[in-house]
Design brief:
- By secondary structure, the chain is mostly helical.
- The protein has a single domain, classed as NusB-like (N-utilizing Substance Protein B Homolog, Chain A, Orthogonal Bundle).
- It is built from 7 helices and no strands.
- Helix 5 runs antiparallel to helix 6 (about 100-115) and helix 6 (about 100-115) runs antiparallel to helix 7.
Amino acid sequence: MNRSAIRENAFKLIYSLEIQKNENLEEQIDLFFESNDIKDVEAKKYIKNVVLGIDKNEEQILENIEENLKEDWKLNRISKMDLSILKLAIYEIKFTDIPYKVAINEAVELAKKYGEDKSKNFVNGILASVVKDM
C-alpha cells in the first residue's frame, strides 16, 4: 500500500469517526482495519498515529481551521468531508515531519476525489493560510 492509499484510508476513518462520534477510538480503529482488510503494518501504524494524534490535538487543530476561515464562516458550516481532510492535513503539517507541500497536495487530491466542486480550493486556501501563519 503506497503512502497516498494509506493516507486515503486514514481520511476515511477520520470521516467515519466525525460522523459517528464514538467514544472508544482504539476499538473503532481495530474495527476499521478488520472491515477494510488492512494488514500492512506500516499502514496500520500511520493510520493509528494520525487518528490518535488528531484526537489528542483536536482543540488546537480546530482552532487553526477557525482562525483561517473568512469572517462570516463558522466551523459548523464546513462539510464533514472537508473538515476531515483539513484535520488530517493540519495534523500532518503541524505534528509530523511530512513536508507541508506534500500534506497540502495530498489534501487537495482527497478534496477533488471526495469533496464538492469548491472543496479543493477551500481546502487549499485554509491550508495555505495555516502554513503562512507558522
